């Protein structure tokens, strides 16, 4: 390219002597800083005149051509031969000139302080094939060997050279150079490379060069250069490399080898390449959440306060921690950036970035500018928190409540961030009985409240929320919650306190493993010298299943999901694994080969414990340090050093909170399913859905029973049933109050006052509120079922015969006292309560209540043909059909079904029984005062020392006039005013306080 200095290199090789001889001629070198560090300079001239700089790094101060003749010796750096097992992304470990092959990737020619255009000619021995960066390659046979000329007219900071006894294969622009013993691999590598070039060309723009080569390296190297990638011979043979890492190296042709990295601002290319490589195939989309979860787990395993760096400070990978930052955190940053700007803008910005910065060095700031330009948005905040700032956010969720809002089930919750808070788009899923609802919520503070309705349509009821989950697909770079973080090998390698405990008697058997663990930073301790305290404060590898600490910690476990020695060694059921079956072994507890299994540390859940067990010294020696290459797995097995099993323990996906567990149930006596088949809640509802009358029992204070009742009501509405709700808790004279509220004529407080709810029913209104709110929103009639309290009390006191004319007008014209089984059951209840009084009057009062409710149901159905009724009443009114059901059928002949909650089936005579999990009832807020009614006033007769009333300034003797504008003239008015308040709410109170000469009115505020 015009204007760039030109460095023409000529090299020859002495393979036996591991010697490189070179000449570098640099034209237009004025102002260049040149380094010959590591090279033996033979001569140095500028325009033919010799000069000797004071150091091996110098500035060229004259015009013209600088010529450097030099030599360098590059023998094996790893003893006898290539070291095995480096991952493909490893930085180049060194250079080599040998009869086995040549690899020159760093410090083998003079280096300049800025990119220059290189020309390379290389003389290699006969039979050797050479590869370097090239748009075109020329080769001629000479007396001294083969002379290669490589044409690459673009500026670079350095050039790479590889040579060996290769076989060359090519299809179009793709070439492969493999040693003869691996020539059969060329086909799959060429096929995959062509596929990657097509795929990434469509995403990023045309492939920037005219050729691409895959070269098998003699050293354990895995790096990408313009126009080719070099993959060490031990890595290239791994069957998964063409499907995984090769794609990564292809993407580097655009990022790193076409747009160069300005490393002074941080290395962004590894993260971008890692991210795009994860999207290499449509089938991979399914696995992406698992891949992203692995990235988060790696970060959490390896990165801690002592080694944490910001992305701007990442230059290259030197260990697991820097990889977790520069590759995996950075990949997540690009994933979040795509979510922020949208997929279309994301790829358009990348294409424009490539066009603007090709063959130039770019940094994070240039990426920020490119994305701001294409999106039209200020993204400074995004790059500041993710690139400039260390660390990652932590998320938690607090479930506040589930309620009916505008006729729809609604979940209310709070998202909590650890400090400092990040600006995040948090994906939230609500799993419901009818599917999943997905939202993306903007979160910017340490605590932020949200609510999600499960249905938006005015014609359809949303599903009931069962589970709330934050970031279920791992779209955010964040710390994993405890239940999301599986026990994996990486957690051992990344722990700051690492310990291996071994039985002294087994030291010789495991010596190679102990050496490998020590090299990985583990302290070694004999079992005889260790204690439980050591295990409590560290992540530990316990050597051999005869280790006394393993037996003490795990071997005695017997319960479901517990871990025992036999389970661990047979690949048993704990932990649970992704992907299915576990291998089983016949006749004995020892599996073949070498087993390594990671589990939660029972003494400290923040740590892990691993069991390492080898069947023989040969099996142990064959593994060496391989275990730590399998960081994402919980259990590994090797046979003769070859991996035969790798599994990851299951863990939760996303930050989860259970909203409601759907109860299981089974039919009771005389039921529709008399065979005792277990049934779930919605199976029960389906079974009773066509019955004219459906009775659902309750214990009045049980929140879970009322939740079941609400589920029945909502499911019937989803089925488009025409039904009404009968409720024991409302009395007949207040039907108009119910009708006015359901019809939208009155407010909730007006309804509660008009129905005298807090005077006539002592149980918390919030237990029933959602059912009535749902009915109001969807226009479902609600029937007051119960007899007037004064009439029932009169029967308790004086019997039916003692009622006056007005009371007798309230009782049904026909009542049945002939059911003696019912009477016997009432006697049991009467005796159990030991309440005293007259049983006959008690019997009459109960019959009156049950008959009144049965008449109310029958009367509604007579006046509203075609309606079902869902009757909600205490379970004692429904047992064996004694109370209400049989009387209703006597009156109108309509069939019914009984569903009881929390009662044992024996002798209960219901059709179905449900056993919902306990739910905490809604919290009631209290002023912390005692009150009494006097002459139309509510006066305070007592003040609790730490109550909200005392803190607000209330005093004994004060008269409450209003609460938040609601007039107070009775104790029920106080409960009505406060029914919807929760912790943290404030109310304004007007009070009348006695003075020396007159009363004065005050306004006070109470905070709950």
Oligomer: single chain
How many domains in all? Answer: 6
What portion of residues is helical? 25-40%
Measured between the Cα atoms of the first and last residue, the distance is: 74 Å
Uncertain runs with pLDDT below 50, 5 residues or more? 78-92, 281-286, 557-589, 666-675
Tally of helical segments: 28
Question: Which structural class matches the secondary elements?
Answer: alpha+beta
The coarse overall form would be elongated
DSSP strand count: 51
Percentage of β-strand residues: 25-35%
Gyration radius, rounded? 40 Å
CATH-derived architecture of the largest domain: 3-Layer(aba) Sandwich
Mean pLDDT: 90
The CATH C-level class name of the largest domain: Alpha Beta
CATH fold title of the largest domain = Rossmann fold
Largest β-sheet summary: 9 strands, mixed
């Amino acid at each position: 390219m015009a204007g760039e200095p030109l460095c023409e290199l000529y090299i020859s090789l002495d393979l036996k002597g591991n010697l490189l001889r070179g000449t570098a001629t640099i034209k237009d070198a004025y102002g260049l800083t040149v380094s010959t560090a590591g090279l033996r300079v033979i001569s140095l001239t500028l325009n033919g005149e010799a000069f000797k700089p004071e150091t091996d790094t110098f500035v060229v101060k004259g015009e013209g051509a600088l010529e450097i003749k030099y030599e360098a010796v590059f023998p094996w750096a790893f003893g006898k031969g290539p070291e095995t097992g480096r991952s493909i992304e490893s930085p180049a470990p060194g250079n080599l000139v040998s009869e086995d092959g040549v690899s020159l990737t760093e410090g083998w020619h003079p280096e300049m302080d800025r990119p220059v255009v290189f020309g390379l000619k290389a003389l290699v021995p006969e039979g050797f094939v050479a590869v370097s960066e090239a748009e075109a390659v020329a080769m001629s046979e000479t007396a001294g060997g083969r002379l290669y000329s490589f044409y690459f007219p673009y500026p670079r900071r350095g050039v790479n050279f590889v040579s060996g006894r290769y076989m060359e294969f090519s299809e179009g622009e793709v070439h492969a150079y493999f040693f003869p013993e691996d020539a059969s691999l060329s086909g799959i590598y060429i096929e995959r490379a062509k596929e990657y070039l097509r795929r990434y060309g469509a995403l990023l723009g045309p492939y920037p060069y005219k050729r691409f080569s895959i070269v098998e390296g003699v050293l354990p190297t895995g790096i990408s250069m313009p126009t080719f990638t070099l993959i060490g011979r031990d890595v290239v043979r791994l069957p998964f490399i063409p499907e995984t890492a090769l794609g990564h190296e292809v993407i580097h042709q655009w990022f790193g080898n076409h747009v160069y990295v300005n490393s002074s601002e941080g290395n962004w290319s590894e993260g971008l390449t890692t991210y795009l490589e994860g999207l290499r195939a449509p089938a991979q989309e399914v696995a992406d959440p698992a891949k992203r979860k692995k990235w988060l787990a790696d970060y959490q395993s390896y990165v801690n306060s002592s080694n944490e760096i910001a992305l701007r400070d990442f230059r290259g990978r030197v260990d697991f921690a820097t990889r977790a930052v520069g590759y995996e955190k950075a990949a997540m940053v690009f994933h979040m950036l795509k979510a922020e700007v949208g997929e279309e803008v994301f790829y358009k910005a990348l294409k424009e970035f490539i066009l603007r910065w090709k063959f130039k060095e770019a940094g994070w700031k240039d990426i920020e500018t490119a994305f701001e330009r294409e999106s039209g948005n200020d993204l400074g905040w995004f790059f500041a928190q993710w690139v400039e700032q260390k660390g990652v956010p932590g998320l938690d969720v607090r479930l506040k409540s589930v309620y009916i809002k505008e006729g729809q089930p609604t979940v209310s919750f709070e998202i909590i961030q650890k400090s400092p808070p990040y600006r995040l788009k948090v994906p939230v899923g609500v799993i419901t009985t009818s599917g999943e609802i997905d939202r993306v919520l903007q979160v910017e503070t340490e605590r932020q409240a949200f609510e999600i309705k499960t249905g938006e349509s005015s014609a359809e009821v949303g599903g009931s929320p069962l589970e709330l989950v934050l970031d279920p697909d791992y779209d955010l770079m964040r710390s994993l919650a405890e239940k999301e973080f599986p026990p994996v090998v990486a957690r051992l390698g990344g722990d700051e306190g690492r310990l291996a405990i071994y039985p002294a008697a087994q030291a010789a058997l495991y010596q190679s493993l102990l050496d490998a663990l020590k090299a990985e930073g583990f302290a070694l301790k004999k079992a005889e010298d260790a204690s439980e305290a050591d295990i409590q404060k560290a992540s530990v590898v316990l050597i051999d299943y005869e280790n006394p600490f393993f037996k003490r910690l795990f071997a005695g476990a017997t319960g479901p999901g517990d871990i025992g020695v036999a389970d661990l060694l047979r690949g048993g059921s704990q932990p649970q694994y992704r992907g299915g079956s576990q291998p089983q072994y016949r006749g004995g507890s020892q599996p073949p080969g070498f087993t390594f299994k990671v589990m939660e540390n029972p003494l400290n859940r923040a740590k892990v414990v691993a069991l390492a067990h080898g069947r023989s010294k040969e099996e142990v020696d064959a593994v060496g340090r391989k275990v730590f290459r399998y960081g994402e797995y919980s259990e590994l097995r090797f046979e003769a050093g070859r991996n035969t099993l790798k599994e990851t323990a299951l863990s939760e996906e996303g930050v989860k909170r259970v909203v409601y567990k759907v109860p299981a149930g089974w039919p009771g006596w005389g039921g529709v399913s008399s065979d005792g088949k277990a049934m779930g809640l919605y199976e029960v509802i389906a079974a009773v859905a066509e019955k004219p009358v459906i009775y659902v029992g309750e214990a009045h204070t049980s929140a879970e029973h009322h939740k079941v009742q609400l589920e029945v009501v909502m499911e019937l509405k989803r089925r488009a049933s025409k039904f009404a709700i009968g409720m024991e808790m409302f009395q007949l004279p207040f039907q108009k109050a119910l009708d006015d509220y359901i019809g939208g004529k009155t407010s909730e407080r007006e309804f509660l006052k008009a129905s005298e709810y807090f005077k006539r029913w002592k149980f918390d209104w919030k237990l029933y509120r959602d059912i009535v709110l749902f009915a109001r929103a969807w226009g479902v009639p609600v029937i007051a079922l119960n007899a007037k309290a004064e009439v029932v009390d009169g029967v308790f006191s004086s019997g039916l015969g003692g009622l006056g004319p007005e009371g007798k007008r309230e009782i049904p014209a026909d009542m049945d006292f002939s059911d003696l089984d019912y009477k016997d059951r009432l006697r049991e209840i009467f005796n159990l309560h030991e309440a005293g009084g007259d049983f006959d009057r008690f019997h009459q009062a109960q019959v009156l209540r049950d008959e009144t409710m049965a008449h109310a149901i029958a009367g509604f159905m007579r006046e509203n043909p075609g309606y079902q009724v869902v009757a909600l009443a205490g379970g004692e009114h429904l047992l064996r059909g004694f109370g209400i059901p049989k009387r209703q059928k006597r009156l109108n002949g309509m069939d019914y079904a009984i569903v009881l909650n929390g009662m044992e089936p024996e002798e209960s005579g219901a059709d179905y029984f449900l056993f919902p999990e306990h739910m905490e009832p809604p919290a009631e807020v209290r002023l912390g005062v005692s009150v009494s009614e006097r002459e139309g006033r509510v006066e305070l007769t007592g003040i609790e020392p730490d109550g909200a009333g005392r803190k607000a300034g209330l005093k004994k003797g004060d008269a409450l006039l209003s609460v938040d504008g609601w007039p107070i003239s009775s104790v029920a008015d106080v409960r009505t005013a406060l029914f919807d308040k929760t912790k943290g709410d404030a109310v304004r109170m007007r009070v009348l306080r006695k003075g020396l000469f007159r009363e004065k009115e005050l306004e006070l505020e109470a905070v709950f």
